Amino acid sequence: MAVRQLELASVECCPPVATPGISEDQAATLATVFKALGDPSRVRIVNLLANAPEAVCVCDLMPLVGLSQGTVSFHLKKLLDVGLLDRERRGTWAYYSLNRDGLGRLADVFVTEEGAR
To answer: Is the distance from CB of 73 to CB of 58 less than 8 angstroms?
Structure first.
């Protein structure tokens, strides 16, 4: 049973948005992460996974968000690619959970120079 861990390198590489003069590359990288969260269905998926006691199967997410398996998988891949989710294969199904470290690193992007979020 393998767990796919993706580093949220895109957020790790970037200073907080309150830092003066972030580079164009850093801004583009952050925009990719923000874009992954820019869809209401993806926000709902993150919310569902944040409140799930264990990894959730794609098949269980489908009725909760009211989307087809292909569409749910598409949204999950976007969130996985930016490091916000972890994926585990169990037979033919994939199970997803929130990557809390990745979410924490994303939150750190909003830390101000005074250290407050």
So the answer is: yes
